[in-house]
Amino acid sequence: MHKGHVVCGCFRRKYNPDAPDILLPGNLQRIIEPAERFCRQSFPIPIFICETKGDEWFYRGDYEVSSWTENPKEIAIHNQRAGHNFVSRVIFLRSHNK
Predict the structure, then answer these.
(1) How many C-beta neighbours within 10 Å does residue 34 have?
(2) Could you tell me which residues are beta bridge partners of residue 47?
């Protein structure tokens, strides 16, 4: 974060199988707070995805939040799809790439 804004997103495919279009932030406070900040921002950030078990990161473009939900039913659907049980909200992104 820089001056209270999220300036970049780095997500592992293991935890976010539909990234960069859908993000599944976890329920730890160190993750919840930046996720909430990102949802309040009105500008895109660069998104990087780690596709494999290694640490090779790939730029996927600039994205901003189009909507998000904390609806338990929606969270349960994404938790099941991703094989997790710790998602705090579901964030939907839109691309700013041309």
Answers:
(1) 14
(2) 9, 61
